[in-house]
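Why do we care about 3D structure at all? Because function follows from shape, and shape follows, mostly, from sequence. That is the central idea of this module. The next example makes it concrete: a single protein chain, its amino acid sequence, and then its structure expressed as tokens.
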Amino acid sequence: MKTDEKGYIVVDKFQNTSVPGIYAVGDNTGAVELTPVAVAAGRRLSERLFNNKPDEHLDYSNIPTVVFSHPPIGTVGLTEPQAREQYGDDQVKVYKSAFTAMYTAVTSHRQPCRMKLVCVGPEEKIVGIHGIGFGMDEILQGFAVALKMGATKKDFDNTVAIHPTAAEEFVTMR
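And the structure:
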């Protein structure tokens, strides 16, 4: 079985190895080394092999991830530097928000929250969503779907905010 210079198993987008009938998913392929990614790749492989879905494969772009710290940190898509490198400074617009989580606003242990949207082009397509603060581990999932679907800043602006929540910051940033 072919491996790369770091010892990871080389696979194509369908998780095929260099040996016919042998497949690999997860950390041993050197892709995104996260449990949910391995599970998702395994599910797609299973669908392809056993449910007659020959084109089924995992899209490894824009995979959300969270550091389950206190406060949690979440990210999906490009960072601001990555967007500037890929699209050029003049094509990138960044929106930021800083606030105290409502959950802790009336306590002596106030928790700051920071959120960032990275947008590109005249249509301001969202290519990066990042945040740190209370609830970010839960908040990011839905916004990752929006990013994967090609949402723009205008799409976010046209969404009625759920108040009072930390998540509303992503759709009210100016």
